[in-house]
Design goal:
By secondary structure, the protein is of the alpha/beta class. The protein has one domain: TIM Barrel (Alpha-Beta Barrel), CATH 3.20.20.70. Helices cover 41% and strands 13% of the residues. Helix 3 runs parallel beside helix 4. The radius of gyration is 18 Å and the shape is globular. Bound molecules: zinc ion.
Length: 316
């Protein structure tokens, strides 16, 4: 059975924007991030420290982190492909850094030009760098297994290989291991199965989050399957921003608005105000008019009399 409260980690400013054709201007990005935080999102992945030549959409990530840190109570997460990125993330003051390790080595080479051994070596170097920091300044370090449910180049990846990579990331010193359905190949059964298998090897408390895409329309079903397995952190993006150039009509990440609606309808607290969240779409649509925004709830509206989950009362 799942938990009574979940953490929605908004990844639109990173996963969404990096898949957009144009670059969102800094001021618009900040307006959007501030609005997302005011809607109640407590963790936002605001960018990634990759080469601006490869991803010009992410060129201002350091400035975004510095500015977003001024928002009260917001956890600032970033993606880093290597030690250099992690150093920049620490310098900017990110609270959480995620290193992607694609379980498909071909994808890893195409995506961040590193073999599995090279990514693990980066993880080891990042942990050594973090250990030298004063405890209060040490960001949380997640290793994320991308293409965990299949790869567009290699197809299904042997489970043995996935479990071994999870172990190696944990041995390298990652605080936890995330599971990413980068390609939208997962289904509720495979999601349940892989969560159990990875937890079986590295421990339940080391797998608490999933990163799902809605490429084939199974995003919410997969999120619910993960929730039933006890997963408590869910990545999603406003409007399912991002899409996929090779899958027309398919949204990118699962749509934050629909995901929040599902949980709140079930009485599971997300801390998010749905009306305020849906209003954030206007900022996004204004800044990125050529991008298609997805989501059923924003189009249909909230059901009459919808209240959402009761807000838990703090116990003194
Ligand atoms: Zn993704």
């Amino acid at each position: 059975m799942g938990v009574s409260k979940v953490l929605i980690s908004e990844v639109g400013p990173r996963d969404g924007l990096q898949n957009c054709g144009s670059v969102m201007p800094f001021q618009e990005k900040m307006r959007w991030i501030r609005a997302l935080a005011s809607a109640g999102l407590r963790e936002i992945e605001v960018g990634s420290f990759v080469s601006p030549k490869v991803l010009p959409q992410m060129a201002d990530t350091a400035d975004v982190v510095v500015e977003a840190r001024k928002i009260d109570g917001l956890e600032i997460a970033v993606l880093v492909p290597n030690l250099k990125g992690a150093e920049l993330a620490v310098k900017a003051g990110a609270a959480k850094i995620t290193l992607p390790l694609s379980v498909s080595e071909t994808h890893s080479l195409r995506n961040i030009r590193q073999t599995h051994d090279q990514v693990i070596a980066q993880a080891v170097a990042i942990v050594a760098m973090l250990k030298d920091l004063p405890v209060g300044q040490r960001p949380y370090f997640e290793g994320s297994l991308s293409t965990a449910f299949g790869c567009t180049i290699e197809g299904p990846i042997p489970e043995r290989q996935i479990l071994r990579l999870a172990e190696r990331l944990l041995d390298a010193g990652c605080d936890e291991i995330g599971l990413s359905d980068t390609t939208g190949y997962g289904d509720p059964h495979s999601v349940r199965h892989l969560i159990r298998a990875v937890r079986g090897v590295i421990g339940d408390d080391k797998v608490t989050g999933v990163h799902l895409h809605n490429t084939r329309g199974l995003g919410l079903a997969n999120a619910l399957a993960a929730y039933d397995e006890g997963i408590s952190t869910f990545d999603s993006s406003l409007g399912g921003l991002g899409g996929c150039p090779t899958a027309p009509g398919a949204s990118g990440n699962i749509v934050t608005e629909d995901l929040v609606f599902m949980f709140e309808s079930m009485g599971i607290d997300t801390g998010v105000d749905l009306d305020a969240l849906i209003a954030c779409r206007e900022i996004l649509a204004g800044a990125m008019p050529e991008e298609e925004l997805y989501g059923f709830v924003p189009r249909a509206g909230l059901p009459l009399g919808f209240k959402g989950a009761p807000v838990p009362v703090a116990v003194e």
